[in-house]
Prior knowledge:
By secondary structure, this protein is of the alpha/beta class. It has 3 domains: about 5-110, Gyrase A, domain 2, CATH 3.30.1360.120; about 130-215 and about 390-450, tRNA modification GTPase MnmE domain 2 (Four Helix Bundle (Hemerythrin (Met), subunit A)); about 220-375, Rossmann fold (3-Layer(aba) Sandwich), CATH 3.40.50. About 45% of the residues lie in helices and about 20% in strands. It has helices spanning about 30-35, 95-105, 115-120, 130-140, 145-155, 155-180, 190-210, 210-220, 235-240, 285-300, 315-325, 345-350, 365-375, 390-415, 420-435, 440-450; strands spanning about 5-10, 15-25, 35-40, 50-60, 65-75, 85-90, 110, 220-230, 260-265, 270-275, 305-310, 330-335, 355. The strands form 2 sheets. It has a 7-stranded mixed beta sheet. The longest helix is centred in the middle third of the chain and has 25 residues, at about 155-180. It is flat and about 75 Å long. Bound molecules: the ligand Nc1nc2c(c(=O)[nH]1)N(C=O)[C@@H](CNc1ccc(C(=O)N[C@@H](CCC(=O)O)C(=O)O)cc1)CN2, guanosine-5'-triphosphate (GTP) and magnesium ion (MG). Magnesium ion binds next to α9.
Amino acid sequence: MDTINTIAAIATPLGTGGIGVVRISGEDALKVADRIIKSPAHPEISSMKGYTCAFGRAYDMEGAIDEVVVTVFRAPKSYTGEDVVEISCHGGVYILNRILRACCDSGARLAEAGEFTKRAFLQGKLDLTQAEAVIDLICAQGRQAAKAALTAKDGALYRKINRVCKLLVEYAGHLAAWIDYPEEDIVEINPRELERQLGKCGDELENLLASYDTGKLIREGIEVAIVGRPNVGKSTLMNLLTGYDRSIVADLAGTTRDVVSDTVSLGDVVLRLSDTAGIRFSNDPVEQAGVNLAMAQIERAQLILALFDGGDPLTKDDWKVIERCRRRQVIAVVNKSDLPQVLDMGEIQRSFEHVITISAKSLDGVQQLKEKIIQLFHLGSFDSSAAMVANERQRLGVTQALDEVRQAQHALAQGISYDAVSVCIENAVDHLLELTGKRATQEVVDQVFSRFCVGK
Ligand SMILES: Nc1nc2c(c(=O)[nH]1)N(C=O)[C@@H](CNc1ccc(C(=O)N[C@@H](CCC(=O)O)C(=O)O)cc1)CN2
Ligand SMILES: Nc1nc2c(ncn2[C@@H]2O[C@H](COP(=O)(O)OP(=O)(O)OP(=O)(O)O)[C@@H](O)[C@H]2O)c(=O)[nH]1
Ligand SMILES: [Mg+2]
């Protein structure tokens, strides 16, 4: 057991920046600050009020480290619920590390990953789903993902789970009373009515699960492979979508060799794009290796943009691409619409459900391509202000709770003993309480916070 209960960490990214923050939390946070900060206006940081700041200098044994601004938060009104001191210094790796070391030499210890938020959880500031939303906020790459994470941080999922949980506890209590004191004057259980109520709880849990796949796409982005035979304009499209010269474009067939990847936001949607080598048979082992990578990318992708050259007839290599894309989520993109069109569109229409004609040169059709992607993944109907299940842990917990609720319903319908019904409902409650962390094992809690970075 660690005896030092005051933690410190660098809260900002370790790099060069305008300012950087070292954060201290715990009962000795103010004492630690007293030892390393000298502020002309506040000789004792520990006598500052909560939510106030002061200008000063940070010192260690060797002397002054930097000029800083110190912000004081007093328990319980802080992120962690404990006394917190934030030291804002100049944003350099050396200075940040030296101030952190000074904190540790003055009564703090290094924080573990996620320990600040874990303390907020232990102090009851957040439930586990809200803590998880903090990481999702940090990792959000687009508007929808950030909004959904903030909704969860505000407790939308927590409240929903809590509501269902309360109802189930009520039913379980009623059943238990009925089972234990059948001869007493307890309102009789109407199995049909209870079955109906359980059905409603089950439906709520089912609705939560329904948005999981779309939410995952919004959070993590869609893995998109841009493929096609050489010279159809894959790299040109890649550059157009990323907005800069990410890939080399040349009139030479076989220009792209490696997989070139980048992440872009198209409106609300994050695409994890991969530009690939043109698919054709080649005697050049290096080019062939690139083609193999392209093939592998097709297998991995959630969406394939299969490019064709509208200004050329279909070739054997085009057919290879068509074969590879069968039974996959594909948009056929017929490029170079600015050139006289000779491509057999009939064949393309027969081979692909979704076909978009564009010119990567003149940008014609690119907007339609984007809209098609949003439409294909049902991202347009995504409601980021609704409660939703945001990760595997939550999905599993809700699924297990739902399973128990459905079993309870089934048991009622079959006229199986109230004992069995009651056990199922109690199991469902257990799963829900583990989700919010009200009744979670140390392992579950540690697992959640192990996903955090140090300083959060
Ligand atoms: N400087 C700074 N910026 C930050 C944070 C921080 O800790 N420090 N945050 C985190 O890393 C986030 C903000 N989160 C916070 C959450 C709660 C409280 C807080 O003081 N809560 C009190 C008072 C609430 C109230 O007045 O209603 C409380 O919960 O009792 C502070 C920051 C993002 N920006
Ligand atoms: N006219 C016209 N030319 C285009 C268009 N898109 C790309 N090109 C040209 O087509 C040639 C090949 O483009 P790239 O983007 O390098 O083609 P690629 O598919 O990446 O080729 P590889 O990497 O060799 O497989 C270049 O000269 C581009 O300028 C278009 O929409 N219209
Ligand atoms: Mg290329």
